[in-house]
Design goal:
three-stranded antiparallel beta sheet, five-stranded antiparallel beta sheet, Metal Binding Protein, Guanine Nucleotide Exchange Factor, Chain A, mainly beta, 128 residues
């Protein structure tokens, strides 16, 4: 089993910096089909939520959430870049924008798989 990867993340203008641990490295990069992610189109990789540390720019982060408010998407107020989000599918995980990771060339990770966010398990009716 892989030990994962420790990463550094920043927005475009450099106002926001994070560090995080990716238990699967860059191997699980994916895009989501939910109404928000489908428009955003950013590929994300999995981080342990507890490992995500804001190094710089707390005052520059803004939060977007909707629906159940479980997923929490963070953006730089200055440049508008999405850096990371707390996942609805597992709030103990964060998705980290692949394009914000120091040294990563997103084009080298294509094709990126898609996950079905439109038919989220939390939206299914319980029972018969």
């Amino acid at each position: 089993m892989s030990e994962g990867l420790d990463i550094k993340v920043s927005c475009h203008c450099g106002a926001v910096h994070l560090t995080a641990h990716l238990p699967f490295g860059l191997s699980d990069a994916a895009r989501c089909t939910c109404s928000f992610c489908n428009r955003r189109q950013a590929a994300a990789v999995t981080a342990d939520a507890a490992s995500v540390k804001l190094v710089k720019g707390a005052e520059n982060l803004t939060l977007y959430t909707w629906g159940t408010h479980t997923a929490q998407h963070y953006f730089c107020k200055t440049c508008g870049i999405y850096t990371h989000h707390r996942r609805r599918s597992d709030p103990l995980q964060c998705g980290i924008n692949l394009g914000c990771i120091e040294g990563v060339k997103t084009c080298e990770h294509e094709p990126v798989r898609w996950t079905d966010g439109v038919n989220h398990p939390s939206d299914r009716t319980q029972g018969g």
